[in-house]
Every structure is written in structure tokens, then in C-alpha cells.
Amino acid sequence: MSDAGRGPNTPAELIRSFDKRLRALERKQTQRVGGYVMGSDPAGRVVLTNTDGREVVLTPDPVADPEITGTPQVSGTTLRVFRATTDEIAIPAAATPTAYPDGLFDTVHWISNDLADRFDMATGALTVGSEGPYLVEHRIQVDTNINTNNVTPLILVNGAEFTRGKQMFGSTNDNSNNWADLRVVRCVPDDVLQVGRLMTFSRDAVGDEAGVLTYLSIVKLA
Fold first, then answer.
1. CATH, residue 189
2. pLDDT tens-digit profile of 161-206?
3. Rounded CA gap, 192 and 119, in Å?
């Protein structure tokens, strides 16, 4: 007669059965504690598991990372955002100093904790939290070359022109489809920092998933 499913009848069989079940519970990164095996559950908590399936949770649920979703944690005071979507966005001509249109940047590459609640992705504006010099770089790529038109990249502080970059002239060369600028500005708390332009023409800005075509980066130098 088969003894399949039969429970252990002798102390030796009971010990062997108990030990076998403990070994079955043990996995990498686990440790036996008496009649329990200590390990972790799918939620990341440390638990003790008995051979009968009972669990004792030793640690609380993990606390969610306060960082913006998808943003690597960085040191210093810095951010980099870019346009990831390949959908075009219109940048109208501007005869007076004007910030770029809302929605130009749509993706955070990185941002430090102290700027996470100070940067407005919709407007591309940073409300400065501490006094000091800030290095500001931006690049814009458009869908077609700018021909013989010209564009002057700007940095705006509190809505007014603060610095003016080099005026850039286009040509019939197909590579004349972008402009960039790198400047240092000194700001005080609650200054609103943006990038903008003077333009004699209108074009549609483009982006890419790698974040190399249209982007903005800001870093506090001291």
C-alpha cells in the first residue's frame, strides 16, 4: 500500500520532514531563525516565515521616494529639462523680449531636491531659492532652416530681459535650424528665471527622446 500523503510517524521522520520544509523556504538572502526563515517579501519588507505558512512582518512598508517620478537624485542645485515629444510646437516671431511658449519643455532629465517644487514645467520658469550665480544653457531646434532671418537668445529675470546672447543669422544651409546660448546670471531669492528670444520669423520647435535637440539646463555655481 502506498504511503503517499502519509504524515511522519516517528520522531526521526518528523525531524527530517521539518528540516526539509525549512530548506524549501530558504532562498538567497534568507536566514534561518529557529523554526522560521527570515527573508523579504515582494513589497520589500523583512518577514519571518514559518513552515506552516505563517508570516511575521518585521519592518514597515517601504516609504515612497519623495523625488519626482523618473528623476534621478542629484547633488547641488541643478536641473535639466528637454522636449521629448516629436510633436512640433510653434514659436512665434517676437519683436520684443519674450519667453518661449508654454509647453516647450516636457520632460525632466534631472532636478535637485531644492528645485523640485520651484520649477514650473508648463512655463519653463524657475523661481530661485537662494542667491548666487546661475549658469543657464539652452538649445532650440526647429523643423526647417531659418533662411536669412535672425534670432537672439535671451535670459529673462522677472519677465524682463537680463542678458542677450549672440544674434544668429540663418542661411540657405539646411543646418541653420537651431540656436543655443550659455550665460551666467546672478539671482536673488524669488527671482523668476526663464529663457526667451527676439525673432524675426516663426518656426516650429522639435524634440527627441534623447533630449539633445531642444533643452534647458540650469546650475547654481556657488
1. 2.60.120.40
2. 999 999 887 666 556 899 999 999 999 999 999 999 999 999 999 9
3. 9
Same domain, 159 and 119: yes
Cα separation of 99 and 133, whole Å? 20
The three-state secondary structure class of 115 is helix
CA-CA-CA-CA torsion sign (31, 35, 40, 46): negative
Assigned domain for 89 exists:
yes
CA-angle at 75, arms to 69 and 78, nearest 5°: 75
Q: Which domain holds residue 42?
A: 11-57
- 44 with 103, same domain: the answer is no
C-alpha to C-alpha distance for 54 and 104, rounded to whole angstroms:
54
CB 97 within 8 A of CB 193: no
Strands 55-57 and 192-199: unpaired
How is 12-23 classified by DSSP, letter by letter?
Answer: HHHHHHHHHHHH
